[in-house]
Fold this sequence. Notes:
The structure is a single chain. By secondary structure, this protein is an alpha/beta fold. It contains 9 helices and 13 strands. The protein has helices spanning 4-15, 18-24, 29-43, 59-84, 100-112, 125-133, 198-210, 224-232, 274-288, and strands at residues 48-49, 56-57, 87-93, 116-122, 139-143, 153-160, 163-168, 179-180, 188-192, 216-221, 238-241, 250-256, 263-269. The protein has a 5-stranded mixed sheet, sandwiched between helices. It has a 4-stranded mixed sheet with strand order 8-12-7-11, with helices on one face. A hairpin with a 6-residue loop joins strand 1 and strand 2. The chain is elongated.
Amino acid sequence: MLERKIQYFIDVVQEGSFSSAAKKYLLSQSAISQQITQLENEIGVILFDRSGYKPKLTNQGKVFYEGCLKLQRETNELLETIQQENIKIRIGLTQLEQNKHLIKIINQFKNHYKNVEFDLIEGTFEETNTNLLQGKTDLAFGLESDFKSDERIEYKPLFHYTMCLMCSLNNPLASKNEICVEDLKNQNYICLSKKMGRNFYKDFIQAFKLDGIKPKIIKEVDTFEQLTIDVSLDKGVALVSKEVVNENIAKAIPIINTHHHNDYVIAYHKDYSEIEQRFIKEAIRYFETL
C-alpha cells in the first residue's frame, strides 16, 4: 500500500542490493535504481552511498528508512483494522455534473478497502454545508462557495469549471465562440435562488459587482433543471459552468476575464479520520489524472 518508490527503497535495504530488489519485482536493476534516484530528488536527500560494491545507507538514509518502516507498520495495522470491521463514510453531494466521477472514485477505493461502505446524501448547496457542520456527513463534494466561509471546515479544490453564458440556441449571442464582460451587460438573467445556497448566491452577485455590472435578474429558480428549461426556451440567459450545459438544447459561451468562477472541492472536518484522509487523497489523485 506504500508508494511504489518507498516500497522499492525498503526492499533495496532489506535485500542488500538494487539487483536483488529488482529480481523481486521482475524488473531491471536500472529501473529500480532510477526509482530510488527519483525518490532522492523528491525529498532532497541522498539515501545511499553508492561508492562501494553494495549500496550503503547514509545517516539520513537510516533515519528515512526507520520512518518508512514505521509508516509500513501503521499502514498494515490500518488494513487489519478495517478488514475486521465495517466502516461507513457518509458523503454529502449536490446535483453537480462532476459528481458523476464520485462513483468511479468510490469503486476504486473499495478495490483496496473492501469493508468500507458509503452513504450518499444529496441536498442543496446550503444543505450540503449544514449536514457536514452538524456531523450528518463525514465528507462533502460541492462548490467552494459552500464551504469557504466556515473555519470549522477544510477543503481541497478538485476541478476548476469554465464559466460560460448559457443561452438558447436562437439567442443572437449563440453564434459567438467566446464573449467578454461587456457582452454580459443588458441581459435578462435567470439564476438559482438563495434556497440553493446563500453563499453561492452572495458570490454570484458579488462577481457581477466586480465585473462592473448591475444584473437584471428576471427570475430565480430552485433547481438547475428549471434553469436549463427556461434558458432553452429563450426566457433569459444564465451564468453557469460549461461542464453542466446540455449543448443539444442550449449554447455555452466561455466568458473572458470575468470574476465569475466555480471550483469543485471536497470538504471535510479538521478532525477527519485516517480512512477519510485516504479517501480524500484518492479523490485528489483521481481528478489530477483527468
